[in-house]
Specification:
Elements: H1 7-10, H2 18-23, H3 25-36, E1 40-46, E2 53-61, E3 66-75, E4 78-82, E5 91-96, E6 103-108, E7 113-118, E8 126-127, E9 135-140, E10 146-152, H4 157-166, E11 179-185, E12 193-194, E13 201-207, E14 213-219, E15 231-236, E16 242-246, E17 252-257, E18 263-268, E19 280-285, E20 292-293, E21 303-308, E22 311-318, E23 321-327, E24 334-338, E25 343-349, E26 356-361, E27 368-372, E28 379-381, E29 396-403, E30 409-416, E31 426-432, H5 452-457, E32 461-466, H6 475-478, H7 487-502, E33 506-516, H8 518-529, E34 535-539, H9 545-551, H10 555-562, H11 570-575, E35 589-594, H12 603-614, E36 619-624, H13 634-653, H14 667-670
Parallel strand pairs: 31-32, 31-33, 33-34, 34-35, 35-36
Antiparallel strand pairs: 1-2, 2-3, 3-4, 5-6, 6-7, 7-8, 9-10, 10-11, 11-12, 13-14, 14-15, 15-16, 17-18, 18-19, 19-20, 21-22, 22-23, 23-24, 25-26, 26-27, 27-28, 29-30, 30-32
Helix pairs in contact: 3-13
């Protein structure tokens, strides 16, 4: 693998002329490709006996312009090896058969996503299903005889006939296909049998320990706005009879069974706001009865791992950390069981509970897999993905705190370059996460479409603020931007920047800010409300809440955070909208947006773009063709990174870069995969 171009080799000194800078474009392009091409791991699933771990490896295929995910196998004393290969799609959602003899996985190998099985030592995968609709999740029954799966209903005969007669059209909020549960023999023999039907769509589901029932959550429609109406039922596998279990107001989802099958655990908001309030765990008797919340004393959102005899295992954010906890279902007592490495993403237990696999990262490593005993969590590392970056100049990462304008305590992650000089002032690039209930963490490599690694090599610092509304800091902090969007968020970002300026390490004349989604909205708000920054980049950002409200696919988001509609309280929509103060905008602003973004539709981009032109602020709008809310292909992600590099290079460093468009010289220049696991 090419070594990532270092500051010493490429950017040791500011280049004086456009021609000199252009000569370095290929080297910068190679560095961007290396970052985008990093392989990552995830979804560890330990075999029933604890001897092997199946996991996903995500890689970049430049020629095909796609990100690929395939299944690998490792374990104590087992060198990692690739199990699946899919030419045109990815393989994932892997699950071990209860006897450990083989795995099932989902892949799109024949035009639609189907279930396949394969032996852990390799061989040809066998296609198990032929589902005409869309396959969702699947799970083996406890005895391994059956597989339950969810699938989207096929287009109805009536709909087909209508299309034949009248062409294509759709009535908004009235036409959709539901997802329902089916079962099929784990050997693939026999016809699939439908378990549920009706005017609801199925989400997640779990087999009961005895295999007689499947508990599942469901909503009235598959539309994203219907999630607050989610309820829980179970279905008798033999008869198909459905029994409603939880029908409380608000979203109830993610059901699971107690080890003895007598109780169902589920996630609920328990009356809190479904967008920014805490999720709680509640218990309900499997045969019906009163529910009981058991996590009221835990002030964050738990993510279920598994309910075992010793209690309920879950992960949860604690500021910028993510730790593993054990919950006593009787008392509600929560005990932190594993806090290092500091960012724990995935956990899975062997059947007897004596072996655990953990996917985790620290601020000095990429995600790695570890295995050991949950009795003492003395873990052995199984993978070495971090070897991909061992020669890269990645600087250092630290979590810092500051006080915002209204007294709120705010944290952020500060990246410093390897050549950091505490007696000098450095350019500062601010990267704002989305959400707003996201969290910036001290990850070793970060960026998305922002060239964070190259800016660090250029001697800049990078600040990633966890502004009000971020997850990991409790429900009260998540609610601080209610009826205060943009305004309070800007306080948090600007006070963080000012803190570093006051510390004498940030250069007030070389500041840039950027973000995607909610981070793009905050960046747009900064564009029209301050001249603190030399340049700003707005990625898929909201510019006008009224425009957003009538175009987005999640109208409820705006209603909940602003506690009103634009028709009943236009003032709050104006106060929090970047466009309200467009006449004050002077900051050069790059706007990046996906062509088919349903979450933040493109009218937001065009409105900000036209407004900035009208007031004479320098601006550029780039529409990425064929994409929705995210840039999900490597070539377009590469050019989006280039657009940010050129924009901030011009306005923060005074450099003029040109996009390298010469033909690449084949596989050697395109293949950045290191295969170091």
């Amino acid at each position: 693998m090419r070594k990532l171009t270092t500051a010493a080799a490429v950017l040791a000194a500011t280049l004086a002329t456009p021609a000199a800078i252009a000569q370095e474009a290929d080297a910068i392009d190679a560095g961007f490709r290396d970052v985008i091409g990093l392989e990552g791991i995830g979804a560890p699933r330990i075999s029933p006996d604890g001897s092997l771990v199946a996991y996903s490896v995500n890689s970049t295929e430049w020629d095909a312009n796609r990100f690929d995910s395939e299944i690998w196998i490792t374990g104590p004393g087992v060198e990692p090896y690739q199990l699946t290969r899919t030419e045109s799609g990815s393989s994932g959602s892997h699950a071990w058969h209860p006897d450990g003899a083989y795995l099932a996985f989902a892949a799109n190998r024949s035009g639609s996503r189907q279930i396949y099985t394969i032996r852990p030592m390799g061989g040809e995968a066998i296609q198990l299903t032929d589902i005409a609709g869309g396959l969702g999740g699947f799970a083996f029954s406890p005895d391994g005889a059956w597989i339950a799966y969810s699938a989207t209903d096929e287009q109805s005969d009536e709909s087909k006939a209508r299309a034949e007669l009248y062409g294509g059209y759709a009535v908004e909020d009235a036409e959709f296909r539901m997802t329902h549960l089916w079962v099929i023999g784990a050997d693939g023999k026999g016809e699939p049998r439908r378990l549920t039907e009706g005017d609801f769509t199925v989400g997640s589901f779990r087999w009961s320990p005895d295999g007689a029932r499947i508990v599942f959550d469901h909503r009235p429609t598959p539309q994203v706005n219907s999630f607050p109406q989610a309820d829980i039922s179970w279905v008798d596998v033999a008869s198909g009879d459905r029994t409603a279990l939880v029908t409380d107001a608000g979203p109830d989802s993610g059901p699971s069974w107690s080890p003895d099958g007598s109780t169902v655990l589920y996630s609920t908001n328990a009356g809190a706001n479904p967008y920014y309030g805490n999720n709680e765990y509640a218990l309900v008797p499997a045969d019906g009865g009163e529910s009981r919340v058991i996590t009221a004393s835990f002030d964050e959102n738990p993510g279920l791992v598994e309910w075992r005899e010793e209690g309920i295992w879950f992960t949860a954010s604690q500021r910028t950390r993510r730790a593993l906890f054990l919950l006593d279902p009787a008392s509600g007592a929560v005990t932190e069981k594993l806090a290092s490495p500091e960012m724990i993403w995935g956990v899975d237990f062997s059947d007897d509970g004596r072996v655990v696999v953990v996917e985790a990262a620290s601020r000095d490593t990429l995600d790695e897999l570890f295995v050991g005993s949950p009795a003492d969590f003395d873990l052995e590392q199984l993978t070495n993905t971090t070897a991909q970056v061992e020669d890269w100049d990645l600087g250092s990462r630290e979590v810092i705190q500051w006080t915002s304008e209204d007294g709120a305590e705010v944290e952020g992650v500060l990246y410093k370059p390897d050549n950091f000089d505490s007696s000098a002032r450095h350019p500062l690039m601010v990267v704002i996460h989305g959400g707003p209930t996201g969290t910036s963490r001290p990850s070793l490599v970060s960026g998305y479409v922002y060239p964070v690694t190259q800016w660090l090599q250029k001697g800049a610092m990078v600040l990633m603020p966890n502004y009000r509304g971020s997850a990991g800091y409790g429900a009260d902090f998540r609610a601080l931007n209610v009826r205060n969007l943009g305004v309070g968020d800007a306080w948090d970002v600007m006070s963080g920047v000012q803190h570093l300026v006051d510390e004498g390490i940030a250069d007030p004349d070389r500041l840039g800010s950027m973000g995607w989604s909610q981070g793009g909205y905050i960046s747009a708000f900064l564009t029209t409300n301050t001249d603190m920054f030399e340049a700003i980049s707005v990625g898929a950002g909201i510019s006008n809440w009224m425009t957003y409200y009538v175009n987005t696919d999640i109208h409820g988001f705006t209603q909940q955070y602003l506690e009103s509609t634009p028709w009943s309280d236009p003032e709050i929509y104006a106060v929090t909208s970047p466009m309200t103060n467009i006449n004050d905008a002077v900051t050069p602003t790059l706007i990046q947006h996906g062509e088919f973004d349903a979450r933040v539709p493109t009218p937001n981009a065009y409105e900000l773009y036209q407004g900035l032109q009208d007031v004479g602020a320098e601006t550029e709008l780039v529409i990425y063709k064929g994409f929705g809310h995210g840039i999900t292909k490597p070539k377009e992600r590469l050019v989006a990174m280039w657009h940010n590099w050129m924009w901030f290079g011009r306005h923060v460093w005074g450099e003029e870069w040109e996009l390298p468009v010469d033909a690449r010289d084949g596989d050697d220049s395109m293949d950045t995969n290191n295969r170091a696991r």
